[in-house]
Amino acid sequence: MIFVTRQSPSVLDALEQTGTYTVKKEYVTDKYTTITYHYEPLYRMLTSMARHYIDIPEELLYPVWLSPENTDAIPPSDDAVFLRLDIPEGKYILANDECWDHMINHVYFPLDKSDETAHEAELARYGISSPSALISGNAGNFYPLLKQKVLKSWERVFTVKPQDPSRVVGLCWELKREWLI
Q1: Do 136 and 47 sit in the same domain of this protein?
Q2: What's the CA gap between 128 and 121, in Å, rounded?
Q3: End-to-end alpha-carbon separation of the chain, Å?
Q4: Residue 17: what pLDDT?
Q5: Can you give the pLDDT of all 181 residues of the chain as single tens digits?
Q6: Whole-angstrom Cα distance, residue 80 to residue 160?
Q7: Domain that holds residue 36
Q8: Does residue 160 lie within any of the structural domains?
Q9: 158-164: which pairs have CB atoms within 8 A and are 24 or more residues apart?
């Protein structure tokens, strides 16, 4: 499948020099600086869930984000290069970026509007005013089944298609020089 990704020029350098590129923890730390503590466990969770669908070597923990669209779908940046890649089946997985947004915000990812309404009603019944309190607050300690429901909903990142087709993203855990177009 053809993908486009916006990366630091060092990614292209690594591909040209070594033939491969993988995301290392220090790259995540450099990108997110003071909020790394928030993103790093989410990336590890995303990788763990993806391992149910594709083979990812154990040492690879952080994905490369890809767009199945053209470069118009990715905002430009002065300090980045666009890579167009033809990635073989089994080396990538398609994901729902809407669900990823819910994961980042520590909230439930509903199947549909009625599921969302039912979940909101359940939170109200328990007096939980902040939907993220089950994961990022203390509410999950008091309502562990609700917390598990939220965490389980995040597995939909790979199984539920987004309402908006432009919210489909690709993930892979290694780039190879021979995939460059």
Answers
A1: no
A2: 10
A3: 12
A4: 97
A5: 999 999 999 999 999 999 999 999 888 888 888 988 999 999 999 999 999 999 999 999 999 999 997 655 666 677 889 999 999 999 999 999 999 999 999 999 999 999 999 999 999 999 999 999 999 999 999 999 999 999 999 999 999 999 888 899 999 999 999 999 9
A6: 31
A7: 2-98+165-179
A8: no
A9: 158/49, 158/50, 158/52, 158/53, 158/93, 158/94, 158/95, 158/96, 160/96, 160/99, 160/109, 160/111, 161/96, 162/96, 162/97, 162/98, 162/99, 163/98, 164/98
Query: Same domain for 92 and 109?
Result: no
Identify whether the C-beta of residue 66 lies closer than 8 Å to the C-beta of residue 169: yes
Q: Is residue 174 part of a domain?
A: yes
Statement to judge: residues 110 and 33 lie in one domain: no
Are residues 23 and 80 located together in one domain of the fold?
yes
Residue 28 lies in a domain: yes
Query: Do 90 and 162 touch, CB atoms closer than 8 A?
Result: no
Can you tell me the distance from the alpha carbon of 12 to that of 34, in angstroms, rounded to the nearest whole number?
26
pTM above 0.85, yes or no: yes
* Pair 15, 57 in one domain: yes
Q: What is the per-residue pLDDT for 28?
A: 85
Nearest to 149 by CA among 136, 135, 159: 135
